[in-house]
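TICKET: design request
STATUS: open
ATTACHED STRUCTURE:
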């Protein structure tokens, strides 16, 4: 195609008369064509050389692939052989070590039990490395050695020995405000622990102790103080078998004043009734005590009437210008005049003793109404809230009974004492009338 184009160009140029220029152009085109032919030949030779190399590399790769396939088959065959051999050896090992496996299972079970105990024991805070020694034994596929068995035995021995000791050691203590401090902890066996500020409770998840925000009041704290101050001899301490749970519950228990505050307005009214009743009881008791002392003294000195109930009766009985019948009426009048003084305050005390339990019942009814309203509003999904409301409602009844029972007993005591004094007055008055009647019979 190129030759035809060149011939046509040459013909055109010849016809136009530009022969010289066309000859020059023809030479240039022929030179370029020759260069392209030479370049194509060079590239074709290069491609043939590369093709030969690729064929050789492919043949080599095929040979290596064949070799690798053969090796793979050999390895697979060897793996199958090894698996069968391992299975056979495992079977023989299982047959020969059946009894030993039972021992390993028992060791694993014992290690698991001891590990669980250590996690919940305050000894972990004092001996933190003991739990790490049991880690290999917790693996069911691990075959323990003599050292592992010694660690297990030493762990159980440590538990037995330390559970009967009183020891002190430094440990982290979480304070009620969230701060953490290093403090000296004193533990009583594996049950109770405390520091200089009160009882602490072991936190299993944190491996530290927590100072109880509410310490049990009274004797438990006093025992801690006595224990820290005592340097020799036996000491009395509080042991909590629940490892701090019971002491925490005891700390959460409200004291008497808090219970009264929970009772509310009705509780204060009951206390007011009790105070008024005690004041009346004290005043009347002192009065009866004095009058009893005066009357007993007067009975020993009947010839010298004094300013007391019996003395006033004797003064009336000494009047000689009246007859026995008139004297009887006068003595009855005097005794009736002394009775209000001897009975003063007792009716009020009886009324107060009856009002106190009624006020307690009123507080209970009001508290139950509030409890049921809370149940209606929030449901009864929390038994703790329900029991708390009922317990607060029953506090007023308990408080009313606490006030009423002593008032009833005091009223009974004072009433019996006043009746005894009235009986003495009536007896002495009857004696005076009898003497007057005897004198009148002798005069006749």
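STATUS: resolved
RESOLUTION: sequence designed for all positions
ATTACHED SEQUENCE:
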């Amino acid at each position: 195609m190129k030759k035809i184009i060149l011939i046509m160009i040459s013909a055109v140029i010849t016809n136009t008369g530009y022969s010289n220029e066309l000859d020059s152009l023809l030479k240039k085109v022929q030179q370029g064509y020759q260069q392209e032919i030479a370049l194509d030949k060079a590239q074709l030779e290069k491609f043939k050389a590369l093709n030969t190399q690729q064929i050789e590399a492919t043949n080599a790769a095929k040979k290596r692939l064949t070799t690798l396939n053969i090796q793979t088959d050999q390895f697979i065959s060897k793996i199958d052989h090894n698996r069968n051999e391992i299975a056979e050896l495992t079977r023989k090992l299982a047959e020969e070590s059946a009894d030993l496996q039972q021992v390993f299972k028992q060791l694993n079970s014992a290690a698991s039990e001891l590990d669980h105990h250590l996690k919940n024991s305050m000894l972990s805070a004092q001996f933190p490395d003991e739990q790490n020694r049991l880690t290999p034994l917790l693996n069911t596929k691990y075959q323990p050695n003599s050292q592992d068995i010694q660690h297990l035995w030493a762990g159980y021995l440590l538990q037995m020995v330390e559970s009967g000791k009183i020891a002190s050691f430094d440990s982290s203590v979480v304070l009620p405000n969230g701060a953490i401090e290093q403090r000296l902890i004193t533990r009583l066996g594996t049950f109770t622990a405390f520091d200089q500020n009160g009882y602490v409770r072991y936190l299993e998840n944190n491996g530290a102790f927590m100072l109880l925000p509410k310490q049990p009041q009274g004797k438990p704290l006093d025992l801690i103080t006595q224990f820290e101050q005592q340097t020799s001899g036996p000491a009395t301490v509080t042991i909590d078998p629940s490892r701090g749970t019971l002491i925490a519950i005891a700390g959460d228990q409200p004291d008497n004043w808090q219970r009264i505050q929970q009772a509310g307005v009705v509780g204060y009214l009951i206390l007011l009734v009790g105070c008024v009743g005690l004041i009346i009881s004290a005043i009347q008791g002192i009065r009866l005590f004095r009058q009893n002392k005066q009357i007993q003294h007067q009975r020993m000195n009947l010839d010298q009437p004094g300013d007391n109930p019996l003395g006033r009766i004797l003064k009336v009985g000494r009047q000689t210008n009246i007859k026995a019948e008139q004297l009887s009426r006068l003595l009855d009048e005097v005794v009736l005049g002394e009775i209000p003084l001897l009975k003063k305050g007792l009716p009020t005390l009886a009324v107060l003793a009856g009002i106190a339990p009624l006020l307690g019942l009123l507080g209970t009814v009001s508290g139950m109404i509030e409890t049921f309203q809370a149940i209606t509003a929030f449901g009864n999904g929390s038994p703790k809230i329900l029991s708390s409301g009922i317990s607060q409602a029953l506090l007023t009844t308990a408080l009313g009974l606490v006030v009423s029972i002593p008032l009833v007993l005091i009223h009974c005591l004072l009433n019996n004492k006043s009746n005894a004094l009235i009986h003495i007055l009536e007896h002495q008055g009857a004696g005076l009338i009898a003497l007057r009647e005897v004198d009148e019979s002798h005069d006749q």
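CLOSING REMARK: The chain has a mean pLDDT of 77. The first helix runs from residue 2 to 16.
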